[in-house]
Design goal:
- This protein has a 5-stranded mixed β-sheet with strand order 2-1-5-3-4.
- The relative contact order is 0.27.
- It contains 4 helices and 5 strands.
- By secondary structure, the protein is α+β, with helices and mostly antiparallel strands.
- A hairpin with a 5-residue loop joins strand 1 and strand 2.
- It has helices at 24-30, 54-57, 65-71, 105-108, and strands at 3-7, 13-17, 49-52, 81-83, 96-99.
- It starts with a strand and ends with a helix.
- The structure holds FE2/S2 (inorganic) cluster (FES).
Length: 109
């Protein structure tokens, strides 16, 4: 049973024992993590934007061009940003950590 950890904007960690084969967005939504996912995985929004822990980023399959294009529209984009709906949890990703993006970054910075 792989574990996924989400870190919210206050630095609070929530670790979830879940199952592989479903998307990170689904895991977040099923467990009350505040990730919107407005298009429900259709890659037509960027509201499922999550920041992957740098130690884990390279273990993910590379983002598609479509995903990169949507990410360009996301607030608080970082080098390790991904769309949560495009990452399917596998056993290899047991322990992966995501942070919720700071949506006001761009306004401050
Ligand atoms: S839920 Fe819309 S792009 Fe992921």
């Amino acid at each position: 049973m792989p574990k996924v950890t989400f870190i919210d904007l206050d630095g609070v960690k929530t670790s979830i024992d879940t199952r592989s084969g479903i998307s990170i967005l689904e895991i977040a939504q099923l467990n009350g993590i505040d990730v919107e996912g407005a298009c429900e995985g259709g890659m037509a929004c960027s509201t499922c934007h999550l920041i992957v822990d740098p130690d884990w980023f390279d273990r993910l399959e590379a983002a598609s061009e479509e995903e990169e294009d949507m990410l360009d529209l996301a607030f608080g984009l970082t080098r390790t940003s991904r769309l949560g709906c495009q990452i399917t949890l596998t056993e290899n990703l047991d322990g992966i950590i995501f942070s919720l993006p700071n949506e006001t970054n761009n306004l401050i910075g």
